[in-house]
Amino acid sequence: MKDNSFERYPEWELLVSWVAIIASGSISQAATRLGITQAGVSHRISALEAILGVTLLDRATRPARPTNAGHRLYEYATELLQNADDMLTGVRNVAHSKRSTIRLGCVDSFAATIGPIIIKALAATSNQVRLWAGSTALLQGQLEARELDFAVTTGGTVAPGVQRQQLFSEPYLAVLPKKFPTDRLTTLTALSRNLQFIRYSARSIIGQEIEYGLQMHSENIERTCESDTSDPMMSLVAAGIGFALSTPLCIWQTRQYLPDLQIVPLSAFSGDGRPYARMTRSYYLCFRESAFGNLPSSIHDLIRIGYASQVAKDVAAALGLTVEQICIQRESRR
């Protein structure tokens, strides 16, 4: 069905003509300024009066003078046209010029590992980059409140007006004390009989993803020890108290504990005689729709290239794994 709601608003050229008449003081001078005939200007004024249903010029006077409605229209039209100019300038600056400030929020594991690379790269295109770290829920709220321009999250729901593009994915890995024997690994439940399972809190998205993965593998491990963040979790594992499930970037974030840890892919475990299916965690770039021109695409590609070309290699080497074991081919953009 055709939307006719905008037909009751004057076109821009009609408002421009009216402002020209008031600013120049006469129809003849307005015609000269606009580069059209006096008849053309008069026709536009008649069209304006027909659309608005009011008289804009008092034609009983010589020269014709604006009515009260005409003066009020001049005030509104001047403001509208100025806002239109500001809109065009702002949009063009975003699309083609250096942006003065970029406010980027990232989940902790991203901010501590890939964040420095992104900051250095964005510094070449922006006068200032502000980096915030926090949970996905916190970042999503800040993005919706327009306190952030971009957010790198690991899931959650997407609010209306916000676009989300997948960056990359990584697998969940088992993290064990360095000296724990791994030659007889079977299931995670069996492992939990020798080492307590140290979980991420169910309040976090990573904790919820791990819980879902355990249920998919029919693992029912007693909930005894939980942590909201990776640092205390890895310190407990390094001390030989238990084992954990985490991701390469989270482990790399707490790499001071790596000398006392061993990292094992979940494929080393099996259930019903079959290796565990891979559990994954995905990172997303979120931003408000119809904003920032080509900048979201540039940041998206910058993050992916920075991760694949440098971070993934460094993390794989530190964990004693291959890049293929920690880096998963991204899915299509969402």
What does this structure look like?
With 334 residues, the protein is of the alpha/beta class. It has helices spanning 12-24, 27-34, 38-52, 68-96, 108-113, 115-122, 136-144, 188-192, 205-216, 230-238, 248-253, 295-319, 323-326, and strands spanning 57-58, 65-66, 99-106, 126-133, 150-153, 162-171, 173-177, 196-200, 225-227, 242-246, 261-265, 270-271, 274-275, 280-288. Strand 8, helix 9 (205-216) and strand 9 (225-227) form a beta-alpha-beta unit. The longest helix has 29 residues, at 68-96.
Task: Sum up the structure in keywords.
alpha/beta, Arc Repressor Mutant, subunit A, D-Maltodextrin-Binding Protein, domain 2, 5-stranded mixed beta sheet, 14 strands, WH-like_DNA-bd_sf, DNA-binding transcription factor activity, transcription
How are the secondary structure elements laid out?
Elements: H1 12-24, H2 27-34, H3 38-52, E1 57-58, E2 65-66, H4 68-96, E3 99-106, H5 108-113, H6 115-122, E4 126-133, H7 136-144, E5 150-153, E6 162-171, E7 173-177, H8 188-192, E8 196-200, H9 205-216, E9 225-227, H10 230-238, E10 242-246, H11 248-253, E11 261-265, E12 270-271, E13 274-275, E14 280-288, H12 295-319, H13 323-326
Parallel strand pairs: 3-4, 3-5, 8-9, 8-10
Antiparallel strand pairs: 1-2, 5-14, 6-14, 7-10, 7-11, 12-13
